[in-house]
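FORM 7B: Structural annotation worksheet

SECTION A. Query
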Amino acid sequence: MPKPGALLPLVITLPHCSDALPPQAAGYLALGPLEVEQSVDLGSSEVFGPLPALRVLPAPHTRLVADLNRSCEDLGPKGVVAAADYAGRAVFAPGQAPDDALKRQWVELFWRPWHRSLALALEAPGVVALLDGHSLDGVGPAEAPDPGTRRADVVLGNRGGPGGEPAPGRGEVTCPPRSLRLLGQALEAEGLSVAYNTPYFGGHIVAHYGPLLRARGAVAVQMELNKDLYADSGYRRVYPEKAAELSRRLNRALEWALSRW
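SECTION B. Predicted structure
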């Protein structure tokens, strides 16, 4: 239970915060620098990065070469090395799409080292929770689960249902519903609207590490932030003062919720 101003007993992951393209993969892509940049979870570094966590683990590279929030075993077109980006554009130039052997090589180069670091970070003393940080558009785009729907300021995911409770087909929740709702209440006290598991309920990171954490009394939560809180209407620019204020609000909410878990 953190004291005000103390380190939060969290490990924070930012799997989609980078647009860096490793030189080993550069010649394969059909997308230009601006399109690669659009794959970034805009603002995730600026808002989550300053939080006083035990450890913050940003992605060192773009998700287009190895998505850290996908299983390394999923080599399909929407798997760890996806064939199309979130806008539906082909990631790789004609004839340059990596085969399964190259995908496995990229997993070893770009995916596995980060996950090794995460596993070690979660073993450190005092870790109470894994917080997987993302951002999303204010209105669901056409390819999303909620096209045309205006979204909450914050979406909390524990791989459960709309109240945080277990949901059919999703297995064990990665954070108890009561704890998830306490965090939601703390965010609402900061003036933020909150949704649970809608439109996203948690990806590979919370699904994989959540059960391991629950076995020792810790939890995993995915948090999606609405980009309208701190970005321009075209989602090209983060307003630093808005991002810093949102980071402070998250810090207060997390302090309050963690003290009651």
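SECTION C. Observations
The first strand starts at residue 8 and ends at 14. The chain has a mean pLDDT of 96.

SECTION D. Sign-off
Analyst initials: ____
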